[in-house]
C-alpha cells in the first residue's frame, strides 16, 4: 500500500516530459493507416510511455511500478471472476445539479480493473461546444467516466482543463429512476446510489485502490467530425489513484453502458486497435466497420464468470517451431481473457514453466540476469538486440500471434530484459505486450476476435 501511495504521488506531482524535438516522430496520425475501412471511426492511440502521448507517464516511473500495478489489475480481475465483494466505502457530498445542495451518499466500492500505468490513451470530445480530453482506453471496463468540476471531493492532476458541465448546453444529469442507473450494477459491479436531489451516483473502483465516484450523466460525445447525442457516462467528483494525467477512462467491454454498445446502433458492434510500442509514434483505435479479409480469427469463448470480458481459447505455443512439452488440455485448464490493460501475459502454471524452459534453452548462449519481481526468466541486454527464438501462440479456429522479440521479451531496465510472461492463478490473460504492433479486431456481433500482423505500419 505504501508503494502504491508513493507511486500515486509521483503521478500526481511529477513534471511533464521535457520538450524535445519529436515533431517528425510524432507526426503519424490515424488517417495514415491506409488499411483501415474509411467508414469507421478512427482515433489515434498512444503508448502510456511514449513521448508522443498527450498525457505521458513521468519518465522516471520505474518498471517495478508497472509490475506492481499489473499485479493489482490481475488480482482485481480474479476478484471479478470470483465475484468477491469489497467493503471499502467512500463518501460523496454535493449534487450534480447544485454543488451547494450538500446531499450525502455513502457507497461501497467493489472490485474493478486497475487502470493507468499499463493502459493506452486517446482523445475524446465531450459537450456542446465540444472540448477534447485525454482518456485511458480499457477493454476490461464498461463505464466511461471523466473528471468534472467542481471536483467536490478530489481530482487527480490531468493534462488540460477539467470538464465543466455548466459549459455544455447539452449536458444533463441522470435521475435515480432511469434504467441506466440500474444498469450500473453490471457495468461497475457496484449498484447506483441516489443523491438527495434524485441524481444517480456511480462508483467505479479498480484493483490498485484507485476509484472514481460521481454523477451519472449524459451529453454529446464526439470524435473528429462524428458526434453522438445522449451518451451516458460518469461525471467524476471524487477521483483518486493511478490514472496518469488522463481525464478519465473509455470503457470498451461487453456492456450496454460501454462506449462500444452506445455507439453500436449507428456504427456497428465491432472495434479494432493497434497498440504501438513505447518507441512508436502512434497506433489506432477504430470503432465500426473493418476490412475482414486481413485477419485470422478465433471465436469469443462463452463464460459464466463475467460476460463483460472477452474470453478466447488458447490451443498451443511453439518455440522455434516445436510445441511445448505439455498436454493440449493444459492450455484450457484456466479460462483465458484478452485484455488491453494488462502488460504481462499470464499462462497456466504448467504452460508457463514449459515456455520458460524452452525459451531459456533456445537462448542458451545469452548471459542470464537475476529475476525481476515476478519475471524469473531474464537476460542481459535489450530485447531488440538479442537473437530470440520464433514463438507463436495459437488459438481455437486457427488464429495465431507470431511474436517478435519485443512481443516476447520486455526491457525492465537499460541492461536487462525478461520473458514477458508469468504464471496465472485463476485466469490466463493475453496482455498488451504480446498484442503490440498487431491489428486486433473485436467483432462482437459475430462473436469472434481477429489478429493481423503489421497493424501499426
What descriptors fit this protein?
disordered N terminus; six-stranded mixed barrel; 457 residues; six-stranded antiparallel sheet; 32% strand; alpha+beta
What is the tally of helical segments? 9
Shape: globular
Low-pLDDT ranges: 1-24, 85-89, 93-116
In round numbers, the mean pLDDT is: 83
Helix content: 10-25%
The secondary-structure class comes to: alpha+beta
Strand share of the residues?
25-35%
If you compute it from the alpha carbons, what radius of gyration comes out, rounded to the nearest whole angstrom?
21 Å
Major beta sheet, strand line-up? 1-14-13-29-30-15
- SS elements, strand count: 30
Structure description:
The protein is α+β, with helices and mostly antiparallel strands. The chain has helices at 2-13, 63-82, 179-182, 184-188, 259-267, 328-331, 349-362, 405-408, 432-435, and strands at 41-45, 88-93, 104-109, 120-126, 131-138, 145-147, 172-173, 193-194, 200-205, 211-223, 226-240, 248-251, 270-274, 283-287, 296-299, 311-312, 314-319, 322-323, 336-338, 345-347, 368-369, 378-380, 391-395, 400-403, 409-413, 416-419, 421-423, 428-430, 439-443, 448-452. The strands form seven sheets. It has a six-stranded antiparallel β-sheet with strand order 1-14-13-29-30-15. It has a six-stranded mixed barrel with strand order 4-5-12-6-11-10. Strands 18-17-23-24 form a four-stranded antiparallel β-sheet. Strand 8 and strand 9 (200-205) form a beta hairpin. It is globular.
Amino acid at each position: 500500500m505504501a508503494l502504491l501511495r508513493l507511486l500515486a504521488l509521483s503521478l500526481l506531482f511529477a513534471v511533464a516530459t521535457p520538450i524535445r524535438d519529436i515533431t517528425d516522430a510524432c507526426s503519424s496520425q490515424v488517417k495514415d493507416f491506409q488499411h483501415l475501412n474509411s467508414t469507421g471511426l478512427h482515433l489515434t492511440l498512444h503508448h502510456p510511455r511514449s513521448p508522443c502521448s498527450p498525457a505521458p507517464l513521468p519518465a522516471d516511473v520505474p518498471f517495478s511500478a508497472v509490475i506492481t500495478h499489473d499485479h493489482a489489475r490481475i488480482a482485481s480481475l480474479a476478484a471479478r471472476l470470483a465475484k468477491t465483494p469489497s467493503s471499502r466505502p467512500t463518501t460523496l457530498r454535493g449534487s450534480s445539479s447544485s454543488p451547494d445542495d450538500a446531499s450525502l451518499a455513502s457507497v461501497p466500492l467493489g472490485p474493478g480493473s486497475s487502470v493507468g500505468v499499463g493502459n493506452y490513451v486517446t482523445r475524446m470530445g465531450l459537450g456542446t461546444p465540444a472540448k477534447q480530453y485525454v482518456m485511458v482506453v480499457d477493454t476490461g471496463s464498461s463505464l466511461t467516466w471523466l473528471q468534472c468540476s467542481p471536483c467536490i471531493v478530489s481530482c487527480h492532476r490531468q493534462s488540460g482543463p477539467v470538464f465543466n458541465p455548466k459549459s455544455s448546453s447539452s449536458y444533463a444529469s441522470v435521475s435515480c429512476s432511469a434504467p441506466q442507473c440500474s444498469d450500473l450494477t453490471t457495468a461497475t459491479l457496484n449498484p447506483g446510489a441516489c443523491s438527495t436531489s434524485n441524481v444517480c451516483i456511480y462508483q467505479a473502483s479498480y484493483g490498485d485502490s484507485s476509484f472514481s465516484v460521481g454523477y451519472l450523466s449524459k451529453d454529446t460525445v464526439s470524435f473528429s467530425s462524428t458526434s453522438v447525442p445522449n451518451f451516458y457516462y460518469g461525471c467524476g467528483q471524487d477521483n483518486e489513484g493511478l490514472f496518469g494525467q488522463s481525464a478519465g477512462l473509455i470503457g470498451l467491454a461487453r456492456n450496454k453502458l460501454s462506449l462500444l454498445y452506445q455507439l453500436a446502433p449507428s456504427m456497428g458492434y465491432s472495434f479494432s486497435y493497434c497498440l504501438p510500442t513505447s518507441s512508436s509514434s502512434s497506433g489506432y483505435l477504430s470503432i465500426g466497420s473493418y476490412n475482414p479479409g486481413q485477419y485470422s480469427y478465433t471465436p469469443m469463448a462463452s463464460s459464466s464468470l463475467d460476460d463483460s470480458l472477452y474470453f478466447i481459447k488458447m490451443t498451443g505455443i511453439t518455440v522455434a517451431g516445436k510445441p511445448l512439452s505439455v498436454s493440449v488440455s493444459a492450455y484450457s485448464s484456466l479460462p483465458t481473457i484478452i485484455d488491453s490493460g494488462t502488460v504481462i501475459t499470464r499462462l497456466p502454471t504448467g504452460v508457463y514453466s514449459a515456455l520458460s524452459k524452452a525459451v531459456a534453452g533456445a537462448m542458451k548462449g545469452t548471459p542470464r540476469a537475476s529475476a525481476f519481481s515476478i519475471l524469473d526468466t531474464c537476460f542481459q541486454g535489450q530485447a531488440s538486440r538479442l537473437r530470440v527464438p520464433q514463438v507463436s501462440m495459437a488459438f481455437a479456429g486457427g488464429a495465431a500471434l507470431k511474436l517478435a522479440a519485443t512481443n516476447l521479451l520486455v526491457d525492465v531496465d537499460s541492461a536487462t530484459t525478461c520473458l514477458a510472461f508469468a504464471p496465472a492463478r485463476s485466469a490466463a490473460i493475453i496482455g498488451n505486450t504480446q498484442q503490440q504492433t498487431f491489428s486486433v479486431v473485436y467483432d462482437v456481433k459475430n462473436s469472434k476476435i481477429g489478429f493481423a500482423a503489421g497493424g501499426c505500419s
